[in-house]
Amino acid sequence: MADFLYDPAEELTGPNHLGVLADHFRKSSNYSVRRSKGTQDYLLTFTMAGQGGFKIDDKIETCVCGDISILSPGTPHHYGTLGQIWEFYWVHFVPRADWLIWIQQMGAHSGFTQSSIADVSVQSRLRGVFRRMIRDSRALGSHQHALAMNAVEEMLIVLALSLQQSNMGLDPRVEEVLQLMSQRFSEGISVDMLAKQVGLSASRLSHIFKQQVGESIIECLIKLRLRHASRLLERTTEQISEISDLCGFQSPYYFTRKFREHYGMSPTQYRNNMLQDNV
Prior knowledge:
alpha+beta; Jelly Rolls; Arc Repressor Mutant, subunit A; 10 helices; AraC family transcriptional regulator; DNA-binding; Tscrpt_reg_AraC-type_HTH
């Protein structure tokens, strides 16, 4: 199974670059890479199919579909295919200073770390991010380089958020409801609709959600709407009635009442305070 570990793999050095180097590989059983001195940058792989493996020190780490593997700079490693194929995305990158907090949250600030992304929607998003990353990293020009770096940043944020939610031990159905609410809070969402989406009764979903999140579905939904409303008040000149509608509230009156309860002031007062702070 781990035949690649005994192959005389070619000794490689890390890429000599300061930006983003990414690609999508589908390798056969004879694929193997060895770097006895590691790299000067971070290497991240996202396995799509098949099986690969990393040998770090004397330990073998297997990679299967959904696995994210991260090697920090200077980590000696040897990796290759386990079985028939290994299909994976990979990226070498030098992180910006403000990215290090997300890298630390993933436990990747030193050595080797591996996590599994089980949520298929997160996997799908990561595939899209990698496709853009690869395209922009191959193009010429500073703008394309900036776009590739933005894709790496998005990837790290998505991974850090996904792993944070997993560490909270949330029921997968609660995670799905939270994701649906964050994506569709401006629509007419109901508890019955959410319960049907995840295959539970409304009462059972409400109980599990309150138990794990600490607040009811409606309370959480209202907070999502109010947070978006506050951003629109800060950054746009839309009328209060229009913001109320954009955020999914039943009426401007109900929106204003809930906004005052949460922020301690009316939407108009909030906007005026933001304008004064920016003068």
